Amino acid sequence: MNLELLNKQIENRKDILLHYAPTSFFRKQADHSFEFFVKKEILSEKDQNKFFIKSIDNELYHFFYEYLAWDSKFFEMPTYKLKFVIFDSENYTNLLKAISAFKDEVVKENYIFTEIPSEDVYLMQALNESLFRLVETRMTYYLDLKNYNNKRYNVREAIIGDIPNLKKVSSKMVNPYDRFHADVFYNKKVADNFLGVFAEESVRGFADYVLVPDEDGLPSDSFLTVRYNKEWWGEINIKVSKMVLSAVSSTTNKGWYIKLISEMALHLKELGVDFVMMHPASTNKAVIHSYEKLGCKLGKVTHILSYKKR
Prior knowledge:
Helix content: 40-55%
Number of strands: 11
Strand content: 25-35%
Radius of gyration: 20 Å
Strand order of the largest sheet: 1-2-3-4-11-5-10-9-8-7-6
CATH architecture of the largest domain: 3-Layer(aba) Sandwich
Shape: globular
Oligomer: single chain
CATH class of the largest domain: Alpha Beta
Number of domains: 2
Structural class: alpha+beta
CATH topology of the largest domain: Aminopeptidase
């Protein structure tokens, strides 16, 4: 791999590649986000041989990807994530040829998905033309915690004994437009089960904190998980955490979603976190309304595309 060329390609597309960073919308920290989430990530991938290089008319195209062992085992389908496509030329035909080669030589009969920021419309068009299908449009909302205050609600940290309830509500209260349920290549029952397992593993330590209601006579049929992401803070010069998974029973815990969001925000504020991010599907209007009601703002929009040879 020609590192001088790779660095040149990265810098040439910096204005677009910046938006691949999950915190790209924090403008004062944008350069830190680019260096940590994009440039450092790409250069670390090249050391692990997680890349594919294709030369088309003497132009090099770099594909950085990852094999997801856990997902592959759970869904019984070899699964990859395409993380970055790095190139210099604006030759659209050659980009299509490079993507075709990547599909033929790396993806083959397997499943691959990628998350593309709205700003990289050039690559998105090429992937669409190469039969990558849109499965979800995802928003990133964020809440400034420095001055956040709200009415308090009775909540507690989830315990192992809550797992059966949380698995059940997570498997039942699904969004049919999330990427697991919208993608034609996922079995819907398996996708339901996946969300239940994700909820269980969150309580067992995958998440940093899981919040549930704590009111007499009210079952723990709703929850919210968060990752603190402390490993980011020093690198991007801002303390940002991320709410990951939630589910609320519409029968036994109605109205608790906004309460859990508010209480999690206050929990993070107590830890000294500056901002918290959430990632709703663009179709989840009720959730987005709850975020905006609490004062959250839109940060960015991304699109999840997937490909599997039919």
